[in-house]
Amino acid sequence: MIIAIDGTAASGKSTTAKIVAEKLGFTYLDTGAMYRCVTLAMINAGIRNTDSELINNLLKDLTIDLVENEGNLQILMNNVDVSNEIRSVEVTENVSAVSALKKVRESLVKIQREIAATTNCVMEGRDIGTVVFPNADFKFFLIADSTVRAHRRQKDLQSMGEEMSIEDLEKDINRRDEYDSTREISPLKKAEDAFEIDTTDLNIDGQVSRIIEIVNK
Predict the structure, then answer these.
(1) CA–CA separation, 123 vs 180, rounded Å?
(2) Which CATH architecture has domain 2-212?
(3) What is the percent of the chain with per-residue pLDDT over 70, rounded to a whole number?
(4) Measuring CA to CA, how many Å separate 172 from each of 12, 57, 69, 101?
(5) What are the sequence ranges of the domains in the chain?
């Protein structure tokens, strides 16, 4: 079974998907973390979005592993734990543009489909229910007020020792939503058969309960 959770930036997709997977005994696949790994690798190597040949070479040599460790999901890039690094402001500011690159999407979608072919999984992202798995058993689309999402993002950054104002975060979130929704390749949009959940007034437990209730029905 495949459960696809898509939605806008900072709408609670990753945390919700992780807990839903735990409660159902499914594999959790954080596709957003995979795109963040590619973004971090490109930043570290000084590769620009227009350097097609360098990007292709990087993708050939890049390994990404999502590993459960004492209840926490570790993101390993070339066997190095980058769980915190991929959540940095710099990666966040660049990940939408990297995610829009055709070669990057083709490479990661291939990996995602290979994983899902052998296990029940919960996957989150922006095009899981529309492009990666249009025939997913269940599809959800999460939205939330941009100010609420900015506060959530600020808490995430503060936990990593980074600071950014609510105003700047909200601008960045709105910019990412606009970019993701209008990009040519795999734009962010709600699948026609997806359940929409507004998480503005819901905490994580509420989001998880809503999804599991629908799946169990």
Answers:
(1) 18
(2) 3-Layer(aba) Sandwich (3.40)
(3) 100
(4) 16, 30, 32, 20
(5) 2-212
